[in-house]
């Protein structure tokens, strides 16, 4: 199974956001253990680095990024994806549209996000972390 993990799920772990951190950690562990193939969109990396600047030192943030790159495959951004997202009027949020473009190219089974409503026009199935963990527990 292949998934693209949205930025908010990674931030749930790094910021220890309750009540979401446990499910997010389960998903990351499944990716780290290579039980599932996990992707991050390339723009997730600088977004995380920037968002965490007030909470973590530069050294800590660099270590987080290195760890993420060891656990997840990174879906690159290119002009084709960016232009497709610019032209896609089905998404109100450009960043979410880029996530969907990356998931589509990765042939992901799911985009795992806490904001499924932002992906109403997604070509890739969208699932919340809690639902995805249940799916994994059921063995699907």
Supply the helix-strand structural class: alpha/beta
Query: From the structure provided, what is the oligomeric state, counting identical versus distinct chains?
Result: single chain
Report the C-alpha radius of gyration, rounded.
Answer: 14 Å
Question: What's the count of strands?
Answer: 5
The amount of beta strand, in percent, is: 5-15%
Give the mean pLDDT: 95
Distance between the termini: 9 Å
Order of neighbouring strands in the sheet with most strands:
3-2-1-4-5
Cα shape: globular
pLDDT < 50 stretches: none
User: Which bin fits the share of residues in helices?
Assistant: 40-55%
- Give the SSE order as H and E letters: EHHEHHEHHEEH
Main sheet specs: 5 strands, parallel
Number of helices, where a helix is a run of at least 4 consecutive DSSP H or I residues: 7
What is the structure about, briefly put?
The protein contains seven helices and five strands, in the order E-H-H-E-H-H-E-H-H-E-E-H. By secondary structure, it is of the alpha/beta class. The longest helix has 14 residues, at 58-71.
Features:
alpha/beta; five-stranded parallel β-sheet
